[in-house]
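Lecture 7 notes. Example A: sequence first, then its structure tokens.
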Amino acid sequence: MPRKRRVLSFPQKLPPCEGPKLNIFPYHKSRIQWLDRLDGDDDVTSSQGYVFRALIRGREYAVKVFFDPMSTEYFWGPLLGEDTSLDTAAYYTDPFFAECRAYGRIREATDGKILKSDVAVASHGFLFLEPKDQEALQKRNIDLGLDSVDIDYQKSTIGGLRARAIVKGVASSKSGITSTSMRKILGKVVSMNKAGIYNMDIRIDNFRDGRLVDFGSSWTEPHALLDSLSHEAATESKLADRVMFDQMIEDEELENGGEVKAIHHMQLRSQIKRH
């Protein structure tokens, strides 16, 4: 008798560790029609992955396809300990899991009326690409980095060699940040910080229509790296979004007149000392 093909089963929520989790995309088994790149020219390589416009069950989505994590022990080893498994470290340092955790917390906070739904471009869940989808992207010269994944990680991680993706809503190419909208947008950033989400990548290109679009660099509480830091270093990390927001306004030369300020230097010093 012919051997039955083994069907891989994936978890309904990720990551499998303490803290918020993102649900699997409801139509993760449906056919994906890959359209154009949304993150720049086809010749541009991202540090985290690629973003495509895609058609699934007749609806357009933005699908961010991630590189698989490689060993970055030089970064997390001193903080989490060299004996920490790559799986565990990835739950807190890998961009895919960072987005899962952030969007999981956003869902919790919006359900609890702590956050408004317009703080970020909507996420509809995660999925693992089928082999045919990986082949379709590779034919477009998209390197998913599957050949450079740590071999031990391949054997143990959820999904194995399957490329991972997060499905989001499609937004316009405009940041939505103007002199008149910056105060409201700053309020969104601060509200996310209060909910335990630290984006760590506040810049003009990370906003679409006044909403944050990428959380691949984010830290969401509870977070192992935050817990490993001193009180002073942890406080500085938690205030990073506000510092970057002020820098963004300055870099973009938006008319402000000093009225909108995410954090003042004296306020920064006092908050660090207080902790």
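Example B, a different protein, same format:
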Amino acid sequence: MTGEITSARSEGALAPTMRGQWADLLAFLRHPYLPERLLPPGQSARLVARLFALDLVAIAGFAVLALTAVGLELPENYNATLGLGAQTIVLLVIVAPVLEEIVFRGWLSGRPGTILALFWAGAGLAGLALFGAGAGPAGPIAALIGLVLAAAMLVALRGRPPLPAFERHFAWFFWASAILFAAVHLANYEEGALAILLPLLVPQFVLGTLAGHVRVRCGLVWSMLLHAAHNGFAVGIALVALSLEPAG
């Protein structure tokens, strides 16, 4: 899922300045496309750092808007009920970014191997959920078969170019990925009017677009790192806030 992405269009090197990089991102978002090849590791690291800075600007802007909504009762976020023990931090900063990037952006390469692998892995997990993990061997067997077929697709179809139809309609797939990624975070809220909940998804939507850009320019591992940095920053802010609370 992290192999080179090919396309009829090419992508140049990094912009010389941070501002130029953000302008390059804006141009990409206006007309999303699959770059011809992935950036080398050094340039990928610089791109992720620049886009993480933009992500922080977006988070700060969202925080300012949230502070202006004083008096408006915001719905409780499920993540706030988890506590911030070591297990929760690992879940939010490592496990969630890896799994969510695979599900929402692993297939953005448009390669048949990654698309079919995700399909069979999902089918296996659906079988596990359908039959139940504790209701005999059917569920685990279905999950195992799905994972084996997913691995087989990755190996058998490795190196295949993106599907032509996927390339032609890449913009639709790109925005669908970002929107679905944001929408799934509605599950973090048990209640609340949609008019209030949708603005709360703006940070996830911004992250989805940034991570999608990184995924197709740098590879899946780099979008995982950006996602982990985003979550890690949020966790860090939460830890600082907890440390400032008066004891007792």
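Note on Example B: The chain has two domains: 47-64+77-110+164-234, 111-161. The longest helix spans residues 41-68.
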